[in-house]
Design brief:
Blueprint lengths: L9 E5 L4 H13 L2 E6 L7 E2 L2 E4 L2 H8 L3 E4 L3 H13 L4 E4 L6 H11 L5 E3 L5 E4 L3 E4 L8 E8 L2 H13 L4 E6 L10 H10 L5 E7 L4 H12 L4 E6 L24 H10 L8 H11 L1
Parallel strand pairs: 1-2, 1-5, 2-4, 5-6, 6-7, 10-11, 10-12, 12-13
Antiparallel strand pairs: 3-4, 8-9, 8-11
């Protein structure tokens, strides 16, 4: 099994005629993902990598029976692209775009509460179920089929941890990059809940970073609701308080919450061992299996 995507997922690429969309659509197709359509206003009737392009997501879904979309649309227009996907009643929307204004995402978040569609991202690398499908920019060659789930706020950290797992012969059920922005769709808890329900996931890795309190809330969820063992990693341990560190959500306010120390303490109290390095995370996972 897997969570959120599998080989039945049929994908619309929003922005497929742009540079990023065109490149990563080809990467997804080469990986084996069912990319069935593109959607770009004014580009209907064209094709990219033999994938038909439609003017709207709605037309793409109707013609190609798609159930998911991945968004490669510039920041100024990305929120409108997500709104269009949400209005089409897809099962899943994955927003890769970095730099979507926070006020735009506040409007998206409100709309998201009114529909049944799951949003992953924005500002994320996407999601992959190894051997079945990937939606986004993750490098498929470092992943392997297996029994460990992974959820992460950081794309690069995802790759480092996965590479360590795969090098040891430990494959993954699904890896989810949830994104580092202050307002995102799928949270740590959403992914952890799905992994707990997945009978093929025997252990989970959760990669967090400084800023916000999502990791502390996830720790409370793990303690109360999970039997599946979880290993953790927290990035940004040496970051100075008050300084923005790349990801929009990765800033420590100085109030004592959101620090690496508070997140590690919360996870440890929940029974989650936290590695100092990606290698140590893999050590903990090996101990679980």
């Amino acid at each position: 099994m897997s969570i959120f995507v599998d080989d039945d997922t049929r994908v619309v690429v929003q922005g497929i005629t742009g540079g990023e969309g065109r490149f990563h659509a080809e990467q997804m197709i080469d990986y084996g993902t069912n990319v069935v359509a593109g959607a770009v206003p004014g580009k209907g009737g064209e094709s990219v990598h033999d994938v038909p392009v439609y003017d709207t997501v709605d037309r793409a879904v109707e013609a190609e029976n798609a159930n998911a979309s991945v968004v490669f649309v510039p920041p100024a227009f990305a929120a409108d692209a997500i709104f269009e996907a949400l209005d089409t009643d897809l099962d899943l929307v994955v927003a890769i775009t970095e730099g979507i204004p926070t006020q735009d995402m506040a409007r998206v978040k409100k709309r998201l509460s009114e529909v049944d569609t799951r949003l992953i991202g924005p500002n994320c690398p996407g999601i992959i179920t190894p051997g079945e499908a990937k939606l986004g920019i993750l490098p498929g060659n470092i992943f392997a089929e297996g029994n460990v789930g992974l959820v992460s706020r950081s794309g690069t950290l995802t790759y480092q941890v996965v590479d360590n797992l795969t090098q040891r012969g430990i494959g993954q059920t699904t890896a989810v990059g949830i994104g580092g922005d202050p307002i995102i769709g799928t949270s740590f808890i959403d992914a952890l809940e799905a992994f707990e329900a997945d009978t093929d996931t025997d252990a989970v890795v959760m990669c967090g970073e400084i800023g916000g309190e999502d990791e502390e809330r996830a720790a409370a969820f793990i303690a109360e609701h999970m039997d599946t063992p979880v290993a953790g990693f927290i990035a940004g341990r040496t970051a100075p308080p008050g300084k923005r560190m790349g990801h929009a959500g990765a800033i420590v306010s100085g109030s004592g919450t959101g620090t690496a120390e508070s997140k590690i303490e919360a996870l440890n109290e929940a029974g989650v061992p936290v590695g100092d390095t990606p290698e140590e995370v893999a050590d903990h996972v090996e101990d679980f299996l």
